[in-house]
Design goal:
The structure holds two protein chains of two kinds.
Chain A (H helix, E strand, L loop, with lengths): L1 E10 L2 E11 L4 E5 L6 H8 L7 E6 L2 E2 L4 H4 L3 E4 L11 H11 L4 H14 L15 H13 L5 E5 L7 H16 L3 E5 L3 H7 L2 E6 L2 E7 H7 L2 E8 L5 H8 L4 E6 L4 E7 L5 H10 L4 E7 L2 H13 L1
Helix pairs in contact in A: 3-4, 8-11
Chain B lengths: L13 H17 L2 H23 L5 E8 L3 E2 L6 E2 L2 E2 L2 E5 L3 E2 L5 E4 L2 E2 L6 E8 L2 E8 L8 E8 L2 H9 L2 H13 L4 H5 L3 H4 L6 H34 L7 H25 L3 H25 L8 H5 L1 H4 L9 E4 L5 E4 L4 H25 L5
Antiparallel strand pairs in B: 1-11, 2-5, 3-4, 5-10, 6-11, 7-8, 7-11, 9-10, 12-13
The chains are: A alpha/beta, B alpha+beta.
Chain lengths: 308, 366
């Protein structure tokens, strides 16, 4: 459905995308992760014909967007960065414009416009000129226009960017619903919890190269380190923290507050019980012992750290 | 369901997409202050041009009373006028007069025309020469005349058409200069480019919309001028429509150049300023320098656009060279009326082609 083959993009001496190979199968939702400057947006811009590739191929439903962007984008809906809209048009007019460009019949445009505006909760603004909209409203409308023609592929570049917490939740719910409807979704995001919540698979890139591409569950299992929060009934003194940091499997330990510390631990899940017993044996009266942070976040930090 | 979406509707052809882009881009101008500002400029200039000359003592029409007619005695056998012989001729020095209103006086007494004099009107295009043929000997008599006169359509329209070039430049600046660069600077490209539509289609659709907006303004100007001319000059010059054709050609060429600049530059302000000053200052300076140096720059767009005014002249003016003694000569050039079409068409095609090429290659990076 989406296939990147030896994709390269250079800006002068800088290689933004470096021999990238990736295949997103039909009906899957893939989170596209990487630190700033990793090449995520550049890859998405190539896929949406905003910039050209230096070499390689980017196939959408088997059609190379590099050589035939019109055919390749015919079944794609995209939100890239936070797009601006023509301020003199209303949401209804904007959707009508884009629908006509895509060859949708007038009746279908009307029907889908109503559905999409309801989906993104913008019915009351349907005839207001977009020039008056906030960034969050524009972002919701951007998602709406991507869904208008019920595309087979959705390419979303940080779709919750600019939204307030409620808006973020709403957009995630939309994405989850689209996922249930078997859309193929390729989504970049900085929000790891968002990716973990909505995606089936994760592709992580850095310096334009693919570091890992696998199911989220598999990646979580592969995560080497865990962050554990230990809370005592009284203050945990520095010498005790020092001793804990030297225990087997402990990579790092530091006080979060007087009574708590965060332990970065590397080892199988079963061995955490041994760690707890060892800490208690030092006289710490442990009232809480739990993992903090997301597995995906741990994996992300591990892989990015290794690649740099 | 996503699986069922394919083949629901086909993407329209390029030719089908162009009117869609045109329609929604035109809304941009119909809803913008720029179009109304253009209307305001047209209205203001027309009012000023129409009112100022009479206020400064140059009326468009009036009645000359007791105007002395200088008659030249003729040999009556040499100038036969039908069954009569002509003893003297005189000329009324007005470009247009109401022939029915002419009354002659001989030594202050009304001089009836029956068998004594006739008025001949010889037309050169829209201009006329009025000659009085006196059919009896009036040697020693003072001939005066009273008549209603009005400005010729050519003179009246030429006065206003000096503004037409400026109006075209305003339209190219308002409706073309930031049309392409705005897609990048305002980030609307992020919305439009990821659609199944070639950049060339977007370019052409936008260009046609800009052109339509300019045409609306230009047409209003010409229609208003035609109405004023009918009212003040009692007619429209024969070449008035040809002038409109030249203006439209200049609009197309200027708009194409504006689109080229818009495809080339990175900022809307720069593109707007460069477009305006290119036509209002840089090109005219080149034209003037060429004239000063004795070089006729036929390939200049602004020089060629002069045809939209000169086409009203009958006959079409020819290049002149006046000896200025030690200062050399003063050359005045006029664009060739046929070549002017070719030059404006060439500018339009070359600028559109290059502009489209640049737009297609331009990347939405950063």
């Amino acid at each position: 459905m989406i296939e990147l083959q030896k994709l390269n993009k250079s800006f002068g001496p800088i290689k933004a995308v470096d021999d990238l190979d990736l295949r997103v199968t039909r009906g899957t939702t893939v989170g596209f992760l990487g630190p700033n400057g990793a090449g995520k947006t550049t890859t998405i811009k190539i896929l949406t014909d905003l910039i050209s590739a230096t070499s390689g191929h980017a196939l959408l439903s088997g059609v190379d967007v590099v050589s035939d962007p019109k055919a390749a984008l015919s079944h794609v809906g995209a939100v890239v960065e936070t797009p601006e809209f023509y301020p003199y048009l209303t949401p209804v007019e904007t959707l009508s414009y884009l629908g006509r460009v895509r060859g949708m019949p007038a009746a279908e445009i009307d029907r889908r416009t109503n559905e999409v505006l309801a989906q993104i909760k913008m019915e009351q603004w349907r005839t207001t000129r977009i020039g008056k909209f906030s960034k969050g409203m524009k972002q919701r409308l951007a998602i709406g226009q991507a869904l208008l023609h019920e595309p087979d592929i959705l390419i979303l570049d940080e779709p919750t960017s600019g939204l307030d917490p409620r808006g973020m939740v709403e957009v995630r719910e939309i994405i989850k619903q689209l996922k249930k409807d078997h859309y193929t979704i390729f989504m970049s995001s900085h929000l790891l919890n968002e990716v973990e919540e909505t995606c089936d698979r994760v592709a992580l890139i850095d310096h334009g190269k693919l570091l890992v591409y696998d199911d989220i569950d598999t990646l979580a299992k592969l995560t080497k380190t865990t962050k554990l929060e230990v809370v005592g009934s009284s203050a945990i003194a520095a010498p005790l923290v020092e001793r804990i940091s030297k225990m087997p499997g402990v990579v790092h330990a530091e006080n979060a507050t007087d009574r708590s510390l965060v332990v970065t631990y590397e080892g199988p899940e079963e061995s955490r019980a041994d760690l707890l017993r060892s800490i208690q044996s030092l006289g710490v009266n442990v009232v809480s012992f739990s993992s903090v942070g997301l597995p995906l976040e741990m994996m992300y930090m591990d892989l990015v750290k290794e690649s740099r | 369901m996503a699986e069922t979406h394919e083949a629901k509707h086909g993407v329209p052809s390029d030719m089908e997409q162009i009117p869609v882009v045109w329609r929604y881009e035109l809304l941009r101008y119909l809803r913008s202050w720029r179009l109304y500002a253009s209307f305001a400029v047209v209205a203001l200039v027309m009012v000023l041009l129409y009112l100022l000359p009479p206020l400064l003592g140059e009326s468009y029409s009036g009645t000359d009373t007791g105007t002395e007619i200088w008659v030249t005695p003729m040999d009556p056998s040499a100038v036969p006028a039908g069954p009569y012989a002509v003893y003297a001729t005189g000329t009324i020095n007005r470009s247009q007069i109401d022939v029915d209103s002419v009354v002659l006086y001989k030594d202050g007494v009304e001089y009836p025309s029956a068998g004594t004099w006739t008025l001949n009107e010889v037309s050169f295009g829209s201009a006329s020469v009025y000659t009085i043929l006196v059919l009896e000997n009036v040697t020693g008599s003072e001939i005066t005349a009273t008549y209603e006169w009005y400005i010729s359509p050519e003179s009246f329209e030429t006065l206003f058409l000096n503004f037409a070039s400026f109006l075209v430049i305003i339209c190219a600046t308002f409706f073309g200069a930031d049309a392409i660069v705005g897609e990048f600077q305002n980030r609307t490209g992020y919305l439009v480019f990821p659609n199944p539509m070639k950049r060339a289609v977007l370019f052409i659709g936008k260009f046609l919309a800009s052109l339509t907006a300019g045409m609306i303004v230009l047409t209003i100007f010409y229609v208003a001028l035609a109405v004023l001319s009918l009212f003040s000059a009692r007619g429209i010059d024969d070449d008035f429509l040809l002038s409109f054709v030249y203006s439209v050609e200049f609009l197309v060429a200027a708009m194409a150049v504006a689109y080229l600049i818009s495809s080339l530059l990175k900022g809307s302000t720069g593109a707007t300023v460069l477009t305006f000053f290119l036509f209002i200052m840089i090109m005219p300076i080149v034209d003037s320098v060429g004239m000063f140096a004795g070089v006729k720059i036929e390939g200049s767009l602004t020089f060629s656009s002069g045809a939209l005014i000169y086409v009203l002249s009958d006959p079409y003016p020819s290049d002149t060279s006046q000896d200025m003694g030690p200062m050399g000569s003063l050359d005045v050039y006029y664009p060739d009326p046929v070549l002017a079409h070719v030059v404006m068409l060439a500018y339009a095609l070359a600028s559109l082609g290059l502009g489209m090429y640049l737009f297609r290659r331009r990347q939405l990076a950063g």
